[in-house]
Amino acid sequence: MIPSEAWLKSWNEKRNLFACPNNLNDYFEETVVAGKKIDHLELGSVSIPTGNILVRDPLVYIQKDAEPYLIKVPTGEFPVTAAVVVADDEDCARYAAVKVQFTAYDAVRFEEALIGTEDLVNFNEGEFFGFNVDAGLGCVLDKETLSHFCAFQENFNKENPGKNLYDDYFAALFASNYTENPTYQREGGDWINWKIPGTEFHIPFFQSGFGDGTYPVYYGYDIEGNICSLIIQFIDIELAYGEEG
């Protein structure tokens, strides 16, 4: 979708407001943030054949007409990593953020990824748009892999009337992945790297931190202003666990 001139004008005027208030590099480079031990979990790769990228709840918000983010990213297969708040006596392991790394360069700033249809008129500092989670999961996918996902979903529903896509298909994959990779997973599974049947495309699914809610997605820009990463922030670690929080 091509945004209107009015939207682009407002975006450029307010662009500084879309900066992430946290240094998300810390989530993936440090071992302690706000007094919480942080570890890192490799989730395999994600397939980005067109560069038109989306972040969605894979069980609730997968629709053919879902719009990708306005700015395209590099194409190819890219590594996906979760920054995990390590379990302690108070709580289980939580995925604070998930990163897709597109290039070998580090991000020097982070800015929220937008679609181009958001209401920017009433947007204020400290707010974000984000994406909605209603099934406790998130996923990163491409416009083309979304099309394959929707085709798989439609075919499953057609061939399995009365059955549920999660209970009767994905649950077994999550359980199997937990058995094979139990680190930082609850019994039943917290992530999978799904290869869409009949394709070579991969879509990683992962738990969404504290569960259902709305979560911001940020592009990481390198020193030359190019997109080098994408980070989904499920938990503001400093806010959730820091002394001031």
In which order are the strands of the major sheet placed? 1-2-4-5-13-12-6
Number of H/I helices: 5
Overall geometry: globular
**SSE arrangement, N to C:** HHEEEEEEEEHHEEEEEH
Gyration radius, in Å: 18 Å
Low-confidence stretches: none
Query: In the residues, how many domains can be counted?
Result: 1
| Largest β-sheet summary | 7 strands, antiparallel
- Per DSSP E runs of 2 or more residues, the count of β-strands stands at 13
State mean pLDDT (0 to 100 scale): 95
Determine the strand fraction and express it as a percent band: 25-35%
SSE topology sketch:
Layout (H helix, E strand, L loop, with lengths): L4 H10 L10 H5 L2 E2 L2 E13 L4 E4 L19 E10 L8 E8 L7 E4 L18 E3 L3 E6 H17 L6 H15 L10 E5 L6 E6 L5 E3 L1 E5 L5 E7 L3 H5 L4
Antiparallel strand pairs: 1-2, 2-4, 3-8, 4-5, 5-13, 6-12, 7-11, 8-10, 9-10, 12-13
